Every structure is written in structure tokens, then in C-alpha cells.
Amino acid sequence: MAAAYREQYERMKRWYDRFMELDRGRLHEAPSDNYLDDIYAFFMNCYHFKDWIKNDSTVAVSIQQQVEAHIKSNRSLKLCADICNSLKHLHLKRRRSNENPMFGRKKFRLVLGQEPPTISLKYEVDTTTGPIDAFSLATECIDAWDSFLAANGMG
Predict the structure, then answer these.
(1) When comparing pLDDT for 43 and 99, which is higher?
(2) Which DSSP state fits 116?
(3) How many CB atoms are located within 10 Å of the residue 128 CB?
(4) Alpha carbon 25 to chain centroid distance?
(5) Neighbouring C-beta atoms of residue 18, cutoff 10 Å
(6) Helix residue ranges, H only, the chain
(7) What pTM was estimated for this model as a whole?
(8) Which of 50, 10, 20, 14 lies closest to 134, judged by CA?
(9) pLDDT over 70 (residue 150)
């Protein structure tokens, strides 16, 4: 039987790929809010990957029990958790980090005069320790999950 958590992992990676395209520049074919949705969806799917590991019966219980500790030990995943939960619940009641992450400055770059027009977006996450590039944070989150999978023979 194939591990069910892989389905969520692949979904998370597809959202990451969309975010990467937006970070680098992509065809501009939708209202700007749609691009923000792609970014929000990445962070939500990234954090909820933990639930798929914890609820997948093909994953050893000992590994399932390590997931929360992995998040607590990783700054990027703690920030991701806080971002996800603030998006899901509007207000963050239980923090994983002490950095109060919130989306901050957005810089859209629209290239016109060539066909087709392209758009890119640089988005910052404001924290109590300073701003972080949202795509860099997303990359760190992917790396953190990949490390967890590799360390547990799940990669």
C-alpha cells in the first residue's frame, strides 16, 4: 500500500512550484488576489502536511510521534504554523513561535510591452526579529520537511 502522506507532500510541492513561478515571474493572467491565494495555500498545505504524517496508518507510530517535536525544533516550520493558523482562524490564539509572523510588504512587478505580460511578486513576512522573504521561508519549510522524511527513511 502506498503511503497516503505522499499525496499531501506532492500537493504541497505543487503549491510551492506555483509560488516559485510567481517569485521568478509568470504569465499574468489573473487578478492579483489569485496570486496571493497561491501563497496562502502553500503555507496552509505545508503546515497541514504534519497531519497527514500523523494520521497515515502506513507510518510507524514512533515517527508519527516525532512530528510535533520536529516542528517545535524548526523556526521555519513554527513560523509556517503561525501563518497557517492565522489564515485559518483570522486571529492567532496559540502561537508556535514567539515571532508573531504576519504578511507584510508586497512588491508586484508587472512587465508590459512584450507579449504575454508577466508578473512576479516578492512578499515579506514581518516578524518581531525582522522581515523575511516569504519565498525563502517557503523554501526553508520544504527543506525542513525533506530533512524529516530523509531522517526517518521516508524520503
Answers:
(1) 43
(2) S
(3) 9
(4) 18
(5) 17
(6) 5-24, 32-55, 61-64, 67-72, 75-89, 134-151
(7) 0.93
(8) 20
(9) yes
